[in-house]
Every structure is written in structure tokens, then in C-alpha cells.
Write a structure and sequence with these properties.
With 57 residues, the protein is mostly helical. Helices cover 84% and strands 0% of the residues. The longest helix has 27 residues.
Length: 57
């Protein structure tokens, strides 16, 4: 039974570490993407054309 307590404690510690690293990455701006939304409309037509070509083949 004591092994379960150890495993639960270790898993909570690991979860807290991953959560703090995730929060640190978000605050540092690692997930900020200012380039892709501005050019997404330029590449969307090519994806639609490729899908229609694949359906016709």
C-alpha cells in the first residue's frame, strides 16, 4: 500500500514540474506565432486545389 502513496506523490510532482515548465514557456512567448496568421490566406487556395485534384484522380 505504501508503494501507491509513493507513486501518487511522484506523479503529482512530475505533473507540477511539467505544468510550471509549460507556464514558463507560454510567458516567455515560445508559442507566439505572428507570422502564420498573416500568410495563411495566401496558402489556403493551394490546399483546396490539391484536395480537388486528389478527388478527381
Amino acid at each position: 500500500m505504501s508503494v501507491i502513496y509513493i507513486l501518487i506523490t511522484v506523479s503529482i510532482i512530475v505533473a507540477i514540474v511539467f505544468f510550471t515548465l509549460f507556464i514558463r514557456a507560454v510567458k516567455s512567448g515560445q508559442y507566439d506565432d505572428s507570422y502564420t496568421p498573416s500568410v495563411r490566406m495566401l496558402f489556403e487556395d493551394e490546399l483546396v486545389k490539391e484536395k480537388t485534384k486528389n478527388k478527381q484522380s
